[in-house]
Amino acid sequence: MSTETEAATAEAGTPPPAGWEEARSRVYAVGLSAALPAVARPLAEADGHTLAEPLTTRTDLPAFPTSSVDGWAVRGPGPWRVVGRVLAGHTAPPLDADGSTVEIATGAMVPEGTTAILRIEESTRTADGLVSGTPRSAPEWREPGEEANLGEELLPAGTPVDPAVIGLAASCGLDTLRVRRPPRAALLVFGDELLTSGPPGAGRVRDALGPSVPAWLRRYGCQVRAADVVGPVADTLPAHVAALRGALANADLVCTTGGTMHGPVDHLHPTLEALGADYVVNTVAVRPGFPMLLARLVDGDGRVRFVAGLPGNPQSAVVALVSLVAPLLAGLTGRPMPVLPHVTLAEPIPGRGDYTHLALARWDRVAGTAYPVRHVGSAMLRGLAGADGFAVIRPGASGAAGDRVPLVPLPLTPGERFG
């Protein structure tokens, strides 16, 4: 950081901004140290949670030889005499003699003594009831342990639980999962100048963050109720203290919008001081998104809650979400620190001096390239609406066409895994 920047922050009475990568690592670490407790949940209630321990199977998968087709389980050379039938969910007696067969359904247990399975559509019945045909050379059944062996770890702790994970757990013989619940989040919107309906005018602007930040938080795996969104909160210190204290009563994370500076109506810092919070990160050297913060409060019983101060400018607020909130939530749920993909810049992107530049971009996943978008001012949302993420231009650098740079993806669908 330059001497001029250090002098400016010292004059303002705040420490120098944390580097962007350092801030991400720091908030992830404090989130992980305060990870939500592990609880047992029935499979039907585990969607959206996170595995608190590895998923291991209680049985071989499959647990027994299982027919892959409808047909005939045969022993020895044909033609074969039909001695029975075995359906899924039943056990057939062994085939004891060559030349014998049982009709078998897909998913049924293969009888002991079976040497081949003849597909039903490739078989014929003779006039005297015998079955004839030529079985394929490749086995038509699944062997025990073909997918997994008893006790094998299939998924690590920190895996998000989705319908596929629930189905796998059920196939492993599990009835419950040890998981961490989704974090509960709340939002406080600060600013007397904000309108909550209709077009802006007469010096007042429309609140774009009250409707959108909860949706972003849900996409990061949080639970946010309509009642957890409060604002605009009056621009007074008592109103801020009361609103934040109320939001913290039930939330693991409270996000606030605006008030992160030190102006005459910026009350977030005094509010945090009044509530006994300590800063995890107090400003980050990133543009747009300056200033942002993350603070921590610890109750007498050891319960930890967090406050993320998002800037009031809409795009800057989203930069704060991807920079601080996403890593924090990964830590709270015990998920791995988000690993950023790398992309090739299709066009130049300027640097921002001593600050990391998060530049909105469209991401061509097939080609692995990123294209900067227009309308990217910190108060603008048009560019964000057409972007897939932020290209990361590190301090003291600029991005030239062809450069490989990290990209912070936006979580574009509900429940998408953290990025």
From TrEMBL:
Enzyme class: transferase
Cofactor requirements of the protein: Mg(2+)
Biased composition (Low complexity): 1-13
Biological process annotations from GO: Mo-molybdopterin cofactor biosynthetic process
Key words, A-Z: Magnesium, Metal-binding, Molybdenum, Molybdenum cofactor biosynthesis, Transferase
Cited InterPro entries: MoaB/Mog-like_dom_sf (IPR036425), MoaB/Mog_dom (IPR001453), MoeA-like (IPR038987), MoeA_C_domain_IV (IPR005111), MoeA_C_domain_IV_sf (IPR036688), MoeA_linker/N (IPR005110), MoeA_linker/N_sf (IPR036135)
Domain annotation MoaB/Mog: ranges: 186-331
Catalytic function, reaction form: adenylyl-molybdopterin + molybdate = Mo-molybdopterin + AMP + H(+)
EC number: 2.10.1.1
Record GO cellular component, one term: cytosol
Region (Disordered), start-end ranges: 1-20
Similarity field: Belongs to the MoeA family.
Name the UniProt record assigns to this protein: Molybdopterin molybdenumtransferase
